[in-house]
């Protein structure tokens, strides 16, 4: 146990803090399982987050799933790269590369009509918002290579986000099951 | 700005409204895509993030080399079949 003493400027008040290591907290307070669990959680720097929440967050904002399980640098790297690819795709081919089907009453027919949109929507609500915005009259449909490459960029961004969602969900599930 | 740089004077480019005037340089657009794929893939695969830049750079170079080799092989095959 380490004893840390802090003194204020006028020397009339002295504050003493007892800082325990993780092992010492278990030894001195064996009847406090919640405190011990919290200590263990804080000591390895990870949070116990349901895998479904992590997956949903990963879809809502690329990389957010990693942030929820305290994988900050991994989440920022993957998230920024995926969003950059998506935005770059819209820049190259125009926003009309996000092209949903006319009607989703018949889902199979809609998917067969616009298969790329399935991959694009995996990038998250950014794809849905882009599809809504691109319906405006001022947006021009591109053709040939530029359209293909723009579609490819946005679809690859969505599929990479699916990869990231699967990985962060698996990590969250693994961390959750290891503590049971 | 991009229009001026690329010399596409007749085309009035509006970002996100119209496609970018990159049709003469479409093959270069594979580079940022491959780089993005490399970074995200290695971010997922590597256990320690310190290794990601190096591994992503090597994967990026590998993808480009293999793509160029495949393109060259296909080009030679087409020329051979055209004879």
Walk me through the structure.
The complex is a heterodimer of chains A (180) and B (83). With 180 residues, chain A is mainly α. Chain A folds into two domains: 2-44, no CATH class; 51-178, no CATH class. Chain A has helices spanning 22-28, 33-44, 51-60, 64-68, 72-93, 107-113, 115-121, 125-133, 144-178, and strands spanning 2-7, 14-19. Chain A starts with a strand and ends with a helix. Chain B is flat and about 50 Å long. Chain B has helices at residues 2-6, 30-45, 52-82. Chain B has one domain (2-82). The mean pLDDT of chain B is 87. Chain B is mainly alpha-helical. The termini of chain B are far apart. The interface between A and B is medium-sized, with 33 and 21 residues.
Largest sheet of chain B: none
Shape of chain B: flat
Strand tally of chain B:
0
Main beta sheet of chain A? 2 strands, antiparallel
Q: How many alpha or pi helices of chain B? A: 3
End-to-end C-alpha gap of chain B: 45 Å
What is the helix content of chain A?
55-70%
Helix/strand structural class of chain A? mainly alpha
Gap between N and C termini of chain A: 30 Å
Sheet with the most strands: spatial strand order of chain A: 1-2
Please give the share of residues in helix of chain B.
55-70%
Q: Provide a count of the helices of chain A.
A: 9
Radius of gyration of chain B: 18 Å
- What Rg of chain A is obtained from the alpha carbons, in whole angstroms? 25 Å
Q: How much of the polypeptide of chain B forms β-strand, as a percent range?
A: under 5%
Mean pLDDT of chain B: 87
- Report the sheet-strand fraction of chain A: 5-15%
| Count of folded domains of chain B | 1
Brief write-up:
By secondary structure, chain A is mainly α.
Which features would summarize this protein structure in a list?
heterodimer; A: 180 residues; mainly alpha; 9 helices; B: 83 residues; 3 helices
Strand-helix topology:
The complex is a heterodimer of chains A (180) and B (83).
Chain A: E1 2-7, E2 14-19, H1 22-28, H2 33-44, H3 51-60, H4 64-68, H5 72-93, H6 107-113, H7 115-121, H8 125-133, H9 144-178
Antiparallel strand pairs in A: 1-2
Helix pairs in contact in A: 3-9, 5-9, 6-7, 7-9
Chain B: H1 2-6, H2 30-45, H3 52-82
């Amino acid at each position: 146990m380490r004893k840390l003493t802090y003194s204020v400027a006028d020397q009339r008040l002295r504050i003493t803090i007892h800082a325990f290591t993780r092992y010492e907290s278990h030894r001195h307070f064996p009847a406090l399982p919640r405190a011990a669990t919290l200590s263990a959680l804080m000591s390895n720097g990870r949070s116990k987050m349901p895998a479904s929440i992590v997956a949903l967050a990963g879809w809502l904002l690329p990389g957010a799933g990693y942030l929820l399980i305290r994988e900050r640098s991994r989440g920022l790297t993957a998230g920024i790269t995926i969003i950059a690819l998506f935005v770059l795709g819209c820049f190259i081919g125009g926003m009309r590369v996000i092209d949903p089907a006319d009607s989703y009453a018949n889902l199979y027919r809609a998917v067969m009509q616009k298969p790329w949109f399935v991959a694009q929507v995996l990038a998250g609500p950014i794809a849905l918002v882009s599809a809504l915005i691109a319906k405006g009259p001022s947006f021009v449909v591109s053709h040939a290579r530029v359209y293909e490459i723009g579609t490819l960029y946005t679809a690859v961004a969505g599929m990479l986000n699916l990869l990231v969602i699967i990985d962060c969900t698996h990590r969250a599930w693994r961390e959750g099951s290891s503590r049971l | 700005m991009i229009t001026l740089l690329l010399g596409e004077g007749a085309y009035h480019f509006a970002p996100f409204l119209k496609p970018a005037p990159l049709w003469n340089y479409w093959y270069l657009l594979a580079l940022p895509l491959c780089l993005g794929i490399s970074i995200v893939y290695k971010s997922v695969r590597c256990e320690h993030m310190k290794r990601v830049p190096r591994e992503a750079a090597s994967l990026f170079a590998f993808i480009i080399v293999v793509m160029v080799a495949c393109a060259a092989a296909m080009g030679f095959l087409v020329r051979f079949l055209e004879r």
